[in-house]
Write a structure and sequence with these properties.
With 331 residues, this protein is an alpha/beta fold. It has 2 domains: 2-176, NAD(P)-binding Rossmann-like Domain (Rossmann fold, 3-Layer(aba) Sandwich); 180-321, N-(1-d-carboxylethyl)-l-norvaline Dehydrogenase, domain 2, CATH 1.10.1040. 50% of the residues lie in helices and 11% in strands. It has an 8-stranded mixed sheet with strand order 3-2-1-4-5-6-7-8, with helices on both faces. It is globular.
């Protein structure tokens, strides 16, 4: 197929490389001119994925119309906060018959829309698929074994994406629970910030395990309130991605949390990073979404208080541990 990948950060670049190695014709749109040049001349994304050689069949372009026009499949891998604007600018070029695979993870501020909902609003009638699961870009581009989920409410769409992305090292499962798959991918980033904060405080493995487990309970609670299937959160897009992002040394969100736990200010941590830590953006959206649905999410609340309201990390964790006692399972 002719495939277009919109967004040439580490994740978009890794997906473009995967599609090219699967013998698809791949056009990768990059916002940054230096990224276009380095991919086309050096077969390497020097800015966002330095040190990893890409398939020479990946062709980078700086004009979004050139990237998507005539595509049989379109993958979106932009930061969540710019996704809507990019789709609007590209909408007149996007073929309405091509499945749109949303690999961006997040919850939009103000609207509290999931990423697939943004696509559905901006591209009425589009065939939309969500792609999520435990997948660091550097490991995908290194051909390390990886398993993800593609979910769609439209018949056959997830299967098209499954066949396009699957390879000997990249296994793709299909699902119909779009909300669950998307929420798992978005909320795990907030939980990774929380576990990073605990690690930065030196709280140990017990605290990390507690945060991961109770974080999963919060994710499931909000997901089922929004109509997701509980079982989805026990799968790759839920528990799988949560464990990877909360424990993996390559996790940007966990790394931000570690620095906060060590006492650095959020603006200073973010100033040192060119890549986006989606958990910081999603923390506020998740809190507002939980409030709208009447769902209790104490870990999400704690992350917000530390990141945006000036509460010290140590006192926030102490407050989390001394909340009113309760049963583990919601009844």
């Amino acid at each position: 197929m002719r495939c277009a990948v919109v967004g040439a950060g580490a994740w978009g670049t890794a997906l473009a490389d995967l599609l090219a190695r699967n013998e698809h014709e791949v056009s990768l749109w990059a916002y940054e001119a230096d990224v276009v040049e380095s991919i086309n001349t050096k077969h390497e994304n020097v800015r966002f994925l330095r040190g990893y050689r890409l398939s020479p069949e990946v062709k980078a372009v700086g004009e979004i119309g050139r990237a998507v026009e005539g595509a049989d499949l379109i993958a979106l891998a932009t930061p969540s906060h710019v996704l809507r604007g990019i789709i609007k600018s590209a909408s007149k070029f996007l073929p309405r018959v091509a499945p749109v695979v949303v690999a961006t993870k997040g919850i939009e501020r103000q609207t509290l829309c999931l990423m697939t909902e943004i696509v559905e609003q901006e591209l009425p009638g589009a065939t939309v698929v969500a792609l999520s699961g435990p997948s660091f870009a550097t490991e995908v581009v290194s051909s390390q074994p990886t398993a993800v989920v593609v979910a769609s409410k439209q018949n056959g769409a997830a299967g098209i994406a499954q066949r396009a992305f699957s390879s000997a090292y990249f296994r793709t499962y299909t699902h119909t629970d779009v909300i669950g798959v998307e929420l798992g991918g978005a909320l795990k980033n907030v939980m990774a910030v929380a576990t990073g904060i605990a690690d930065g405080l030196g709280l140990g493995f017990n605290a990390r395990a507690a945060l991961v487990t109770r974080g999963l309970a919060e994710m499931t609670r909000l997901g089922t309130a929004l109509g997701a299937e509980q079982s989805t959160f026990a799968g790759l897009a839920g528990l799988g991605d949560l464990v990877l992002t909360c424990t993996g040394s390559l996790s940007r969100n966990r790394a931000v949390g570690v620095e906060i736990g060590k006492g650095r200010k959020l603006e200073d941590v973010l100033r040192d990073r060119e890549t986006v830590a989606e958990g910081v953006i999603t923390a506020q959206s998740a809190r507002e979404l939980a409030a709208r649905e009447g769902v209790e999410m104490p870990i999400v609340d704690t992350v917000n208080r530390v990141l945006f309201e000036g509460q010290s990390a140590r006192s926030a964790i102490a407050a989390l541990m001394t909340r009113e006692l309760r049963a583990e399972v919601d009844r």
